[in-house]
Write a structure and sequence with these properties.
By secondary structure, the protein is an alpha+beta fold. The chain is 31% helix and 35% strand. The protein has a six-stranded antiparallel beta barrel with strand order 2-11-14-13-12-15. It is elongated.
Length: 457
């Protein structure tokens, strides 16, 4: 009996403990923990970043107009060549034979021309004799000394002689045409023979060689490329693929900096020289080539290297700036609660920018700047946004601002429209519920994504 009594006592104690624990657990509040970042004053540089390829200013592809076997190479990769310098030769045997044959045909045509001219002289002499005989017989026929039959024969011989002269002249003309034709064939053969010697068209450096000795090149359909020669590697260009949303900010003369993988610690500088209007579309993404000129006096950079280009498009100094995470944050409150807080701050639904957004660098560069230290003016029509300031007593207060340019980490505060904002104020960039395990927010820095809940502003 005593055993049963103690058993029920233990059970009752357990029930009471479970009840107390449940009451304590259900009574816990889920007050959120906010992550904040300070309002700062400093410089903002709005830049356009792009990837490009380094190229020589002028690159000439040297080809061959005739087919044949490469018999000699006089240039290799990285060779420095001069204008009209011999860089390769094609076996000339076949072309030399064709030239000799064409020259022989020309001599034969000239001989035929000489024979035709001789025949013309003979025909002219015979025609003159026949003409004289006809004249004598015609005079004698008037006196009745020569029969009419003999006069007719003399006339026929005279006509035959004239016809022979005309035929000889035609043969001379034909022979002259043959001479001209064979002379043209000789010129073609000489030109083809000359094309067996490949010469450099410019002063430059051989950056590509596509042939070897003994290789056969065929130029039946198009001229094969034998060499690629860059004119001057001390003056080069970067072809940067600029997104269509940024191309409107590209201006000739803008300074540019870029890096390459070969020299990660070095920063190279150039100037925008051209924005080409020819678009390139890849998977519905439209880009335009921005040409950047730069000096390469030590030939440190090679054609084909990938350049990571940074083009500054706007800059502001000593301005108030807020982290972009603050522009994206929306408190986890009911809509009517948010509306009430905004109304207390003087923000009306018509001027509220909720849900807000962070503009891209290209859009931000076009906004107006009320700060006198901005390096370039921006027109009116800036975007507005609402940020949430945490006061000393942990309350949230909305502040409406006009945003200026952004460097994608901080955004300039061009003007405070409603509320108050001072340097050092704490702006909420994210939140996490205190009822969640500690691991949910561990390692999260203010203003960063991840465990903290960030609003969709």
């Amino acid at each position: 009996m005593k055993y049963l009594k103690s058993k029920w006592t233990v059970i009752a104690a357990l029930v009471i403990a479970v009840g107390v624990f449940a009451a304590f657990d259900f009574g816990r509040t889920s007050a959120p923990q906010y992550f904040t970042s300070s309002v700062e004053r400093g410089d903002i540089h709005d830049v356009v970043e792009a990837t490009g390829t380094i190229n020589a200013v002028t690159t000439v592809q040297v080809g061959s107009q005739v087919s044949g076997t490469i018999s000699k190479l006089s240039a290799d990769f990285n060779s420095h060549v001069k204008n009209n310098q011999v860089i390769a030769e094609i076996d000339p045997a076949l072309f030399r034979g064709a030239l000799l044959q064409a020259q022989a045909d020309l001599q034969d045509a000239r001989a035929n021309l000489a024979a035709a001219k001789a025949s013309l002289v003979k025909a002219q002499a015979t025609a003159e004799q026949a003409s004289a005989d006809f004249a004598r017989n015609a005079a004698l026929a008037k006196e009745g000394v020569v029969a009419q039959q003999q006069l007719d024969l003399a006339k026929a011989n005279n006509d035959t002689g004239q016809a022979a002269v005309n035929g000889a002249k035609a043969q001379v003309t034909q022979a002259e045409a043959q001479v001209s034709q064979k002379a043209a064939a000789v010129a073609v053969a000489q030109t083809n023979l000359g094309h067996t010697i490949i010469r450099s068209p410019i002063d430059g450096t051989v950056v590509a060689r596509n042939i070897d000795v003994g290789q056969t090149v065929a130029a039946s359909l198009q001229a094969p490329t034998l060499f690629s020669i860059a004119q001057d590697l001390t003056k080069m260009q970067v072809y940067a693929a600029t997104d269509e949303s940024d191309v409107g900010q590209m201006k000739v003369g803008q300074p540019v900096t870029f890096k390459v993988d070969a020299f990660p610690r070095d920063t190279f500088r150039g100037v925008v020289s051209q924005v080409r209007m020819n678009p390139t579309t890849v998977q519905n993404v439209v880009t335009y080539n921005t040409i950047i000129d730069f000096d390469n006096p030590d030939t440190k950079l090679f054609p084909g290297m990938t350049a990571y280009v940074t083009i500054p498009v706007a800059s502001a100094t000593n301005v108030v700036k807020v982290p972009n995470g603050a522009l994206r944050f929306t408190p986890d409150l009911k809509p009517d609660q948010i509306a009430a807080l905004e109304q207390q701050a003087g923000i009306t639904p018509k001027t509220s920018s909720r849900p807000g957004k962070i503009r891209s660098a290209s859009a931000a560069g076009a906004s107006a700047n009320t700060n006198a230290n901005a390096q370039q003016p921006r027109p009116a029509g800036q975007d507005t946004a609402i940020v949430w300031k945490q006061t000393a007593d942990k309350k949230l207060v909305p502040v409406q601002i006009k945003t200026g340019i952004t460097d994608h980490t901080f955004t300039e505060v061009a003007q405070v429209l409603h509320g108050a904002m001072n340097q050092g104020d704490q702006l909420v960039t994210g939140s996490a519920s205190s009822s969640k395990p500690a691991s949910a927010s561990s390692g999260s820095a203010p203003g960063m994504g991840g465990a903290p809940r960030v609003g969709g502003r």
